[in-house]
Structure formats: structure tokens, C-alpha cells
User: What shape does this take?
Amino acid sequence: MSDYPSNLTLVVRQIRYQVTYFMRVPVALFFTLILPIVMLVLFNALFGDNTVTINGEEWPVRQFYTGGLAAYTAVSATYSNIGNMVPIRRDEGILKRWRSTPLPTWTYLSGVIGSSVVIAFTGALAMIAMGVVLYDLQIDWAKMPAAFVTLLVGVATFAALGMALVSIIKSASSSAALVNATILPLAFISDVFVVTEDEGFLHNLASIFPLKPFVNAFQNCFNPFVDGSGFEPGKLAFVAAWGVVGGVIAVKRFSWEPSGAPSRRGRRAQEAAVEN
Amino acid sequence: MAAIEVRDLHKHYGDNHAVRGVSFDVEPGEVYALLGHNGAGKSTVVEILEGHRMASSGEVSVLGFDPAAAAREFRDRIGVVLQTSGVENEFTVREVLDLYSSAYRTPRPLDDVLALTGLEAKADERVGSLSGGQRRRVDLALGIVGAPDLLFLDEPTTGFDPSARRLSWDLVEQLCADGTTVLLTTHYLDEAEHLADRVGVLGDGVMIAEGTPSALIDGISGTVVSFQLPESIETTDAVSTFGAVMDAEVRLSGRLVEATVERSTSVVHRLTGWAVEHNIELLGLSVTRASLEDVYLQLTAAPNGESS
Assistant: This one.
């Protein structure tokens, strides 16, 4: 009897399948990749000639927006995309169907997460490229390793948080509301759409969550007034800590079936509790 | 070794004791049908055997595996057609089959799968554009794409038109010729009678009868007398009127009056005598040997109109 395909083959295939799936769902494509680009164009048309003051230096707003919206694109490709799409697939029974095949379950999840990482990087790169071509965004190549690492940490964290959200969402009907209720207000106080003060209540509130540190760390990689390599270990560690918490919740609570049918793990735990 | 061995299987959902000590075996190459109305426990039993549910107690062995462990080897050798389960609508039939087949060690060639399920003409259409019956065929196709030794079919032909049902029956028969073991649940008694080597009837989580379809039918040794309800009799009066005339327990489904009786000659004599006396023509009067459906209705004693 022949062997199973190698794990690498399976993972690559799953990532390709999930990326194709994403590209064929117009609403996902629009909200994840197209809407942030529309915002970039719109914001620059509206406020492009203004400047923002960062570290006492004047910075053209059009350069500020590119970094922030690129980071936001990465978040919507991971957190929002996973939070919206996986509960739908679970409600439809697609996850359960895969669970019946010999595909190792971690391979399927790698496909979900891996594809969102691919889409996030593609979206962020497209945004940066637009910034360079249209809005005079300056690329300081010395900071690009930091930009790459920052994006990687952010994408991993928000993918993990997306999976954690999926494990909490009961049904797909509530997923869009929960995703947007958690991410949109936060984006407004996290320097994505508007520059916020460096102190005060909103600043303190936003600083509890991982979005603002991620957005700021990524923006600073494109900020000509920030010196050095662009690495911000403190911010990255804080973002990554959120990712670890999200990952733990996802692993503990993830279910292959809608919540009406308890997960194998949940059911087992429940039965153990009854037996004791 | 039996393909499936179930011993004293119990399943609790909270306070609901859904499966209460079910035992049965399915031999390799056999088609075994589980019958029972909604809530009788058949889907729970099947889902435990598939590894989607944990048993509360009892012993279960499927192809020598404990399905609860959900080993990869186990899932490689079974095929599952779930009762309700989505497929990626944005992919074509061929893409979906190709994708799922990549998980198996020895997938069945896609052209064979398409031919067996009658999906050749639809191979390059997106699943989302297919009709309900065609999608169910995609479910079947995904069930056999891994060339399983054991196929679970949970109500496989619900929503099929008659020709599609025949086609899927042919498919099951072809699979059996290859030696595939099939565990089937169905609401259609004719389906079980047509396909199954043996039948198990579940009622309220207990196995209430088991055997070959013909042995079960012989077991009730009845004859079915049926006819169309005459216009002059109200449906509300039908059961009492004909119950008295025939001296038997009468069932009414739609406008079909039916009774399973022991001594059909005398029953028919009384019935036709009454009809002549009242100048009523009994349309579609027939006297037939009991079918599996009658066995089922007797065993599960479901109230009229609620059997399913």
C-alpha cells in the first residue's frame, strides 16, 4: 500500500486551497484587501497634504497612513478573515467533513492560518507598494528587516487571536458582529485611521490591546524620524504575549462542529466530570 | 473478524439516555441498514462508529480500531456520507474531489468516482450551482473517493428524485461487489429492503429487531389489506369505521386505508360485504404480503402520520 502524501505536500496544498477559496469569496476579498486600499486612496485625497507631529517632527500624513493601513490589512486578513470564515465553514459542516478524512487535523488548521498569513503579507506589500508609487512613501532599507519581523509577529498574533475568537463564537450568524465589534473601535484608537494623542484615557485603553503596539511598531519602520534599525522589542514582546494567550484559548476550546454539538474534547471533559 | 462490533453501547446527552445498550455485528462485505424514526438513536450510533461522538459506555470496534481514537489509519479506511454536511460551494466538483482525495493513501481515480456517481457532466461546474440531488451525489462521491473498506451512509438518498435513488442503489450494489462493507441508515423502507443484507430496527435507543428483511417480514406473518378512503367517509371517521368493519387495527396515511391482518380472507369478506351493502366502491383494493414497512410500523408503533 502506498504512503500518505508528505506533510509538506499536504500543508502546501491546504494553503493553496484556502487562498483559492478566499479569492473566490468576493465579500472576503473586498473587506480584507480592497477596502483598506480604498481607505488609503480616500484618506490621502482628504487629508494628504496635512502633517502629523511625531516625536516633535512633522510627518506628511500620506506616509503615516500607508504604514497604519498596511498593518490593518494584515490584521483583517488574519483576525477578521479567520473570525468570519471559519465559523461559516463550521456551521456548513465542512470542518466536520474534513475531520472524517485521514488528513491530519493540524494540516487543515495550518492551511487556514498559513493562507491568512500569505494573504496578509500580500495585502501589506500591495499597500506599501501603493504608498511608494503614489504617495511618496520613503523606504529605508535598513529598517526593512524590522518591518518584516514586526509584520510576522503581528500576523501570527492576530491569526492566533482569530482562532481564539472562532473557538468562542457559537455560530456564524454572530461572527461578523463579533469580529467588527472587537476590531473596528480598537482601530479608531490605535492610530490606524486617525492619529491619537500620546497620553490620556484612549491612549491608555488602546495600550492594553495588541493592535496599537503592532500598528505603531510597523509605522515606525517607515517613519523617517525614528532612528536605528526600527526594531521595538518591547512592543513586539507585548504583541506576541497576546498571540500566545490567543493560541492557548484556541487550542483549548476549538471545536470542529457548531456549538450545538459539543466537541469531542468538551464532551470527554464533561463525561469525566459526570463520572467523578 | 467482524467489520463492526458493537457491545452494550450506551450514550447519554445530559439526562437524555439516547442509546441504551445496543449490540450488533456487521460482517465484512455486508450491507447493514439501521432503521428507526427520528430520535431513535441511529445517527448517534453511526456517529459513534465514525468517531465523531464518544460513547458513554460499551465496546465498539470498527475494522479493528477504536473509532474514538480517530486514528489516521482508521479514517483512511472508512468513507463517511454525513446526513447534513457542506461542501466548498466555490469549487468545481472535480476540484473538490481532487482536494479531498489528496488526503488518502490510495484514492480512487477521479474519473471512476465521477462515473460511479453519475457526475461526469457536472465535473467542471461549481458545487454551489448544483441542485440538491446533485450535491448529495457529490456527498456520495466524497464518501468513496478514498476507496474505503467500510462506507457509512447516513440517509444517503434523502432529497433524491427516483432516478437518482436508483443510481445510488446501483452504486451501493457495485461497491458491495467490490467487497465494501456498508452501514446504512435510512427512512426509506424500500431502500433497506432493496439494499440491505440485514436490518436492525432501533426504537428509543434499543435494538428492537434484527434480521434479514425477509426473515423480519416472515416474522410478522401478516397480510396487508389496503384501499382508498371512499369519498363518503370523513377522514376523522375512517379509523373507527373500518376498524369495526375489518375487526383490525387500521392505519390511515393520506387517503390510503391500511391494515395488517392475520386472516385476510375473512377480513376481505367482511369488508367487501360492508361495501356492497353501503353501495360503496373501494378503489385500489389490494391484498399483499407485508413489506418491511409494515414490520417497521408494527415494531416502532409510531402514531399515524408521525412515522418517518
